[in-house]
Design goal:
There is one protein chain. By secondary structure, the protein is of the alpha+beta class. It has two domains: about 90 residues, Pseudouridine synthase (2-Layer Sandwich), CATH 3.30.2350; about 130 residues, 2-Layer Sandwich (Pseudouridine synthase), CATH 3.30.2350. Helix content is about 25%, strand content about 35%. The chain has seven helices and 14 strands. Strands 1, 2, 3, 4, 7, 10, 11, 12, 13 and 14 form a ten-stranded mixed sheet that branches. Strand 12 and strand 13 form a beta hairpin. The termini are close together. The model has no long low-confidence stretch (mean pLDDT about 90).
């Protein structure tokens, strides 16, 4: 069994949880041990996030992971103003900042400032490797994490809804963009602070979440019928 499988990752699952879940089912269907089955993914989603995950099954496809991970992506983002989080998401320590209420015009103008080529510093709680170790492991251990800023491209930011303290927008971004970092930067520019409370990836390149299966449907027959080559 080999090919590409689109999965709608549920909240609280890690990307590896989905990979491991699928590996066990493919192994069972083929009469193999899980370690004998090659399964990977093309682009991590945070545990609190949901949405499109591209799974690659078989050596022929897992070796193409970098090809898929470099594709542009689209996210639906909900951020909360007036507070910050140590992790940039609901899992961190939440700290109130102030009760400033930006106008809708202020928000639209600020989103425009973050459109195009920008420089951002990935969050310490990320899977980036620092001196051979995952940054989030160092951060959780209380160690200092120094990550160099990087250039990314924000193709479009579209405001969908604003009801203080929450605002929702769509982000079309280049590969390598960290939405949690983007939200924090937007909150800083607004003078309110902010963190991401909901994140859903809807598009990767030409692949859309509407074509993805939920994790509960990752059984052998469903895998075979929905897998792409």
């Amino acid at each position: 069994m080999h090919g590409i499988l689109l999965v709608d990752k549920p909240k609280t699952w890690t990307s590896f949880d989905v990979v491991n879940y699928l590996r066990r089912r493919v192994a069972a269907a083929e009469g193999l041990r899980p370690k004998q089955v090659k399964v990977g993914h093309a682009g991590t989603l945070d545990p609190f996030a949901t949405g499109l995950l591209i799974l690659l099954i078989g050596k022929e496809f897992t070796r193409r992971a970098a090809e898929f991970s470099k594709l542009d992506k689209t996210y639906e983002v909900t951020m909360r103003l007036g507070t910050t989080s140590t992790t940039g998401d609901p899992e961190g320590q939440i700290t109130p900042v102030n009760d400033k209420i930006p106008t809708k015009t202020e928000i639209k103008n600020t989103l425009k400032k973050f459109t195009g080529a920008i420089t951002q510093t990935p969050p310490a709680f990320s899977a980036i490797k620092v001196n051979g170790q995952r940054a989030y492991k160092l951060a959780r251990a209380g160690k200092e994490v120094v990550i160099e800023p990087r250039k990314v491209t924000i193709n479009r930011l579209k405001l969908l809804d604003y009801n203080y303290p929450e605002l929702k927008f769509t982000a079309d971004v280049s590969s390598g963009t960290y939405i949690r970092a983007l939200v924090e930067d937007i909150g800083q520019a607004l003078g309110t602070g902010a963190y991401t409370i909901n994140l859903r990836r809807t598009v990767i390149g030409d692949y859309k979440v509407e074509s993805a299966d939920g994790a509960d449907k990752l059984q052998a027959d469903a895998i075979k019928s929905t897998m792409k080559s």
